[in-house]
Structures are given as C-alpha cells and as structure tokens.
C-alpha cells in the first residue's frame, strides 16, 4: 500500500486539531458538511425524527440512503482545501465520539507512465478505504488534484485506459453507499470544469473555496502575528495591501500569506530585531500573489 497513499493518519489527531485553529472561515464549512453527512450516518435517528414530527416515516428518509458520501472541494490553489478536508474529518469524529483513519491518495498514482495501472491502483485504494471502515470507525479518503484522474471522458484526447480508470472510480464511488456513511470520499480540484460530469452529479456537496476576503485576510494576520502588537488600523492596512485593489485584481491566497509573506517577513527580522508592521508591509509590497489556475 506504500505506493498508493502519501500517508494514513489515525483520527482524532492532535496535530490536525491544532492546525485547524488557524483556519479562517472553517466553522461554516464544517457545519454545512457535517449537517449533510449526519443524514447518512444516523438513519435510525432520521426515522425517529420523522415519526416524532410527521407521525410517519416520510419516503425521503429511505431516499436519503441513495446519497453518495462524496464531497468535492473546489477552488484556486492555496485556498485551504487539503487542510480543510483533514480538519473536517478530524472534527467530525470528535463530534461523533468515534475513531477513524484519513488516507491521502499518493500523487504517484497519477504519475507519468502509470495510466495503464491507474484503474488497478484506484481499485486498491478503495479496498483499503473499506478495510479501514469498521462498525465504530469512519474512514476518509482524499483524492487531491482530482481532475488529474477524474477528468471528463468526453474529451477526445483521453486515452482508453484513462477512461477505464474514470469508470472504475465511478463504480467505487457507487459502492461506497453500501457502507452507510462509514467511508467518505473527499475530492479536491482547482478546475471543477475538468471533472467528469458523472462524478459531479454524485457529489453530496460541492464546497467552493475562494481567495480570502478583506475580513478574512485581516483575521489571518491577527491569528498569525497579532501578538507582535499590531493595532486595528495596521491589520486593516495589511489586509488591504494583500487585496485585489493593489494586485491587479487578484488577492493573495491563504497560503500566499501563511507560507510566503509571513515567513519572508520573519526572515528579514531574524535574528537581529523584532518582527514589526513595517517589515510585513514591505514584504507584501515586494511580492505578488500566486497566479490563478484556470
């Protein structure tokens, strides 16, 4: 299995929980996904709810079993899709008081020269996902950059073995419904329009990730470096400088700020002086946001 997964993480996980604290706008994303997945996980509770409020079990209760445990995370690079998938899985198991595993499909599966094997590797990945899902366990599989292996079959450029791999993936998504929510699939993509239409139709939720708004950028700076003594006006200035107005219509992404701006600002100051507003401001002015993926 080493050639299939980048890692397999046991959940709940303290490291993921700590990283989630720095995610801006996470709660609303989690609430939407968790409220939907509870419909798959608690069929007995749904039946009781229906009888309590409607005196009968509504037909929709059994129809909900037909939902696919598939969540598509769509958005530009650096908007937090991967860490959000991990954090959603971790918090979900904490809420449900259950254990589980988070599996991330290796990028090697999508590597050069593996097209002929791709169908078999997808098959093996889902077999392991099912193995990790037990009566008291929920297993999650993340397919990052999913458009690389789940691109639309309607394109003339797609090889036959690639189409076969997409067919296998669709079949495996269909089979996940048999596990009644004990196995959940995340697929993230920068290019939703490249995903196969049959996969998009199966998604229980398509969650859009955008570049951060002014308020989100301000919150991100406050969470990351607020303790250096920045006042509200300075935080607003940093949020403004990383916005569309100063960068040809394209704001800095979450990862631009977290992994480029702030580390470079720290490097300007370490080890001879304290990190300050001017150092961060100067760094922002010198950098450009990462380009948008189309």
Automatic annotation (TrEMBL):
Entry similarity comment: Belongs to the AAA ATPase family.
Source superkingdom: Bacteria
GO molecular function, one term: ATP hydrolysis activity
Name of the protein described by the UniProt record: ATPase, AAA family
Signal sequence interval, chain numbering: none
Organism: Sphingobacterium spiritivorum ATCC 33300
Keyword field: ATP-binding, Nucleotide-binding
Domain called AAA+ ATPase: residue spans: 67-213
A UniProt-annotated Pfam family: AAA
Alphabetical list of InterPro entries matching this protein: 26S_Proteasome_ATPase, AAA+_ATPase, ATPase_AAA_core, P-loop_NTPase
Lineage of producing organism: Bacteria, Pseudomonadati, Bacteroidota, Sphingobacteriia, Sphingobacteriales
